[in-house]
Amino acid sequence: MKQLISTNDPTIIPFARALLQGEGIDCFEMDVNMSILEGSIGVFPRRLMVADSDYDAAVTVITDNGIEAYERP
């Protein structure tokens, strides 16, 4: 799996998931429990992961809709 998005914004992940599901791309949200435990103050970002084979298509879908894809430093 590859990381597609990493964000503290609670609106980005659901929007990206809806876009990807609309295109038939499966995704998995990580760090949800850690984000909830810290009290939603935005310290720990949530991550959205996709299969390696779907990564390029997923990047295209989210960037076409104004969401920045995660880029490794």
UniProtKB/TrEMBL annotation:
Cited Pfam families: DUF2007 (PF09413)
Domain of life of the native organism: Bacteria
Domain annotation DUF2007: ranges: 1-64
Cross-referenced InterPro entries: DUF2007, N-reg_PII-like_a/b
Protein name: DUF2007 domain-containing protein
Source organism: Roseovarius gahaiensis
